[in-house]
Write a structure and sequence with these properties.
elongated, mainly alpha, single chain, 3 helices
Length: 95
């Protein structure tokens, strides 16, 4: 009987972790949307933003949730497009 109680407890614990994962993707997606908004709204600070966010975003390409992964890729694309627009306007490179 101890085995049944122990097995039920671990299953319950796993369900609890799944519930956390169900909402954690929303937090990760929200964080990426904030980065997106910062990149779009601060084009004059793009050089600093590039250094700060390019590694962060590229390291998250391994995201397991498709909703978040799409948001990461879209934000990375916006960061790249913004850097080319600023680069064309200023005649320099973003390093």
């Amino acid at each position: 009987m101890a085995d049944d109680d122990e097995g039920w407890g671990s299953d319950f614990y796993d369900d609890e972790q799944d519930d956390d994962d169900d909402t954690a993707w929303k937090v990760r997606k929200g964080a990426i949307k904030i980065i997106d908004a910062i990149v779009v709204s601060c084009p004059l600070k793009l050089r600093d933003l590039w250094k700060q966010y390019v590694d962060l975003l590229s390291n998250r390409f391994i995201e397991r949730d498709d909703n978040v992964k799409c948001e990461i890729l879209e934000t990375f694309q916006i960061l790249l497009k913004s850097s080319t627009l600023v680069n064309d306007d200023m005649g320099g490179s973003v390093d």
